[in-house]
Amino acid sequence: MLSVAKKLEEKQRRETLEDLLKLCLWGNKCDIALTDGDVPMLKHSPTEAARMLDPFILRNDLKTAIDSFFLRLRPNKKGLRELHVVLDNMGPEFMNDLIFVEYVMETKLADRTILHGKEYPYFISDATRNDFEWALAELNRLDGGVLLFHDHRFWTHPYPYSEMKTVAPDLYSELSEASIIIFKGDMNYQKLDANIDWSFETPFQVRCRTFFFEGIALLQTHSFFRYRVTNSVFWHVV
């Protein structure tokens, strides 16, 4: 009975992780350009709406990433399983990100989560420390030292991430402690592959060049014409 219960619990945990990661993915289309400032009316629950968008996902390695990483995060040299999330937009996307990391922490899948944001908005909706502190206050939550927000000037610099080790060695060193890093959004994607016109067959490891860690996940939506979503990508790197 205990074996059956354990398998059921892991199955439920896997399904919940997949649902929450899809919310993080599709939340990426929710910046200020989505509605031109209008207040949208949701016709479905967020989870149901995310599932309905499954046919629009071009590259989906969620199940592999969940089984290989999120359910089995490896501790770093300090003995901590650290989840790092490089944020994109404040608003619905950021709230979805918080829900995801809250679940990861509550289920003891990670010991600490570090959210990386910008010192100031590179674009108008970019998440900053003020946004993080406001959100925690509104939710009446305390981080307790296990949910941290770190900003760094490098995130607003024009350099591709392959130059981070030279330009911002302190940030590179911090990211090297991560058990997995989630990058959100188009800007992070472009800086990961240096915005080079790679052929579609080029492995992601090659695109990242010198910026390469054991676990990298990318959640991104492509868009055009007022952010009409055309496809989405989830990559994980082993």
From TrEMBL:
EC number: 2.1.1.-, 3.1.3.-
Residues that span the membrane, as ranges: none
UniProt xrefs under Pfam families: ARMT1-like_dom (PF01937)
GO cellular component, one term: nucleus
Lyase in keyword set: no
Cofactor(s) needed: Mn(2+); Ni(2+)
Signal sequence bounds: none
GO MF annotation: an example: metal ion binding
Domain commentary: Subfamily III proteins have a conserved RTxK motif about 40-50 residues from the C-terminus; the threonine may be replaced by serine or cysteine.
Job description of the protein: Metal-dependent phosphatase that shows phosphatase activity against several substrates, including fructose-1-phosphate and fructose-6-phosphate. Its preference for fructose-1-phosphate, a strong glycating agent that causes DNA damage rather than a canonical yeast metabolite, suggests a damage-control function in hexose phosphate metabolism. Has also been shown to have O-methyltransferase activity that methylates glutamate residues of target proteins to form gamma-glutamyl methyl ester residues. Possibly methylates PCNA, suggesting it is involved in the DNA damage response.
UniProt name for this protein: Sugar phosphate phosphatase
Organism: Oesophagostomum dentatum (Nodular worm)
Lineage of source species: Eukaryota, Metazoa, Ecdysozoa, Nematoda, Chromadorea
